[in-house]
Amino acid sequence: MDGARDATSILQKVLATMPEMGAAERRVADFVRTSPSDVIRMSMARLAEECSVSDPTIIRFCRRLGFEGYQEFKLQLAQSLVPSAPFAYEQIIPGDSIDNVVRKTCRNSLNAVQRLLEDLDPRQVEEGAALLRNATWTGIYATGISEVTAVDAEHKFQRLGLRCQALLGPKRQWMHAESARPGEVSLIFSQSGHTKQMVEVAVATRSRGARVVSVAAGDSPLARVSDVVVAVLPYDRTELMTPLASRFNHHLVINMLVTAIAMASGSEFPDQLPALDSWQTDKI
């Protein structure tokens, strides 16, 4: 079997061939589908015991999938469980129990955050926060699913007392980009840093004297036309493999910027945003 085959295709083949399996093999298939990361650490005897089957049943299962034996199957599964993500990642697959969904989602997010901690340059956060704090007004730009990040940034910066607005949609973005002025800042979110619209917005606002802070891939077209880039690694095959965990890191960068701005402003509790509304609201 080709070593480049990814875990998703292996698990999909398990699912597709289950109707051809006997009851014993199906028990093996169920366990492999729902706990692939456990399988790669188990001996054949341990897996057989877990599934209440014999060793020959494990062999038949592996050969049905095109492997010579259990060791080859386990090796390929281990090598390709997440072929491109640079951090430990467990794919959620059809048939996962809700317990697995909760566990994998939390672990994947924790692992992505740990990778961000290792990759992020704190000085970039400091430089970005300084520009945002001193801006007369900040336009927050994003497209696609990153628009959620832009709205989150707007809400938190406004709670700091900053003048800012999330600008969503091409027409609205161009209207503001073409009227940008010195003293203003454009804060741009882009996972890849290759989105043409965001690069053109950065070029347009800078040409009119505004500054650009981007949260994007460090080695990207957007980064090259920004005054400050907070470089967040766009993990390989992010769109396919780790969309939720990767985008979560952009929200963490917002929190870092907010806290850095609050500290520079002399806040006694920089990681605690003041509420926009009074806590004394009607409750049911």
Automatic annotation (TrEMBL):
<dbReference type="InterPro" id="IPR001347">
    <property type="entry name" value="SIS_dom"/>
</dbReference>
<dbReference type="InterPro" id="IPR036388">
    <property type="entry name" value="WH-like_DNA-bd_sf"/>
</dbReference>
<feature type="domain" description="HTH rpiR-type">
    <location>
        <begin position="8"/>
        <end position="84"/>
    </location>
</feature>
<dbReference type="InterPro" id="IPR009057">
    <property type="entry name" value="Homeodomain-like_sf"/>
</dbReference>
<feature type="domain" description="SIS">
    <location>
        <begin position="128"/>
        <end position="267"/>
    </location>
</feature>
<dbReference type="GO" id="GO:0003677">
    <property type="term" value="F:DNA binding"/>
</dbReference>
<dbReference type="InterPro" id="IPR035472">
    <property type="entry name" value="RpiR-like_SIS"/>
</dbReference>
<keyword id="KW-0238">DNA-binding</keyword>
<keyword id="KW-0804">Transcription</keyword>
<dbReference type="GO" id="GO:1901135">
    <property type="term" value="P:carbohydrate derivative metabolic process"/>
</dbReference>
<dbReference type="InterPro" id="IPR047640">
    <property type="entry name" value="RpiR-like"/>
</dbReference>
<dbReference type="Pfam" id="PF01380">
    <property type="entry name" value="SIS"/>
</dbReference>
<dbReference type="GO" id="GO:0097367">
    <property type="term" value="F:carbohydrate derivative binding"/>
</dbReference>
<keyword id="KW-0805">Transcription regulation</keyword>
<dbReference type="GO" id="GO:0003700">
    <property type="term" value="F:DNA-binding transcription factor activity"/>
</dbReference>
<dbReference type="Pfam" id="PF01418">
    <property type="entry name" value="HTH_6"/>
</dbReference>
<dbReference type="InterPro" id="IPR046348">
    <property type="entry name" value="SIS_dom_sf"/>
</dbReference>
<protein>
    <submittedName>
        <fullName>RpiR family carbohydrate utilization transcriptional regulator</fullName>
    </submittedName>
</protein>
<dbReference type="InterPro" id="IPR000281">
    <property type="entry name" value="HTH_RpiR"/>
</dbReference>
